[in-house]
Amino acid sequence: MRFRFAALPILAAALSTGAAGGAEDPRREIAAIDTAYQAAVERNDAAAMAEILHEDMILVVGTGAVHTREDLLELARTQEFIYERQVEDEGTQTVRMYGPNTAIVTARLWLKGTRNGQPFDRRLWFSDTYVRTPEGWRYAFGQASLALPVVPEGGPPR
Question: Under a CB-based contact definition with an 8 Å cutoff, are residues 52 and 157 in contact?
């Protein structure tokens, strides 16, 4: 398995456990890979994203738009989005296994930054499907909700 995440020790630990074949619970490995993917997006690191994305990966967003692997890598290369935050809200990530070769990660994501100079700050839910390949776990399919309503402290959504 080839990954270039020297700055992400949690991923390195998870991958070394999984690479040995003795990982009893691949959910930890997958959770670390998904967290590393979010960090790569935040940095607009197309090379790191490409290591994780399955060759046939697609992302379907809440508007109905479909984005291919190449679309996502091009967004990183052109830096259309500049992220201050692209992180999972702590405690929201869940990894569910469906047999030995498929896993789905769900979490609430905080996105803050600019797109073509226009600021954004929103949260959404996503589901990322990972499949085990001969090269290791790869992110094959994703779905992301529309932006969640803003909830003021102690009040209803607005």
Answer: no
User: 58-117 pLDDT, tens per residue?
Assistant: 999 999 999 999 999 999 999 999 999 999 999 999 999 999 999 999 999 999 999 999
Angle at 51 between CA 143 and CA 147, to 5 degrees: 25
pTM of the predicted model as reported, rounded to 2 decimal places: 0.82
- The tokens describing 121, both together, are 């700050």
Q: What domains appear along the chain, each with residue ranges and CATH number?
A: 9-144 (3.10.450.50)
C-alpha to C-alpha distance for 72 and 150, rounded to whole angstroms? 26
Residues 6+ apart with CB under 8 A from 89: 107, 108, 109, 110, 123
Decide: residue 146, CB within 10 A, 0-12 exposed, 13-18 middle, 19+ buried.
exposed
The DSSP secondary-structure symbol of 149 reads P
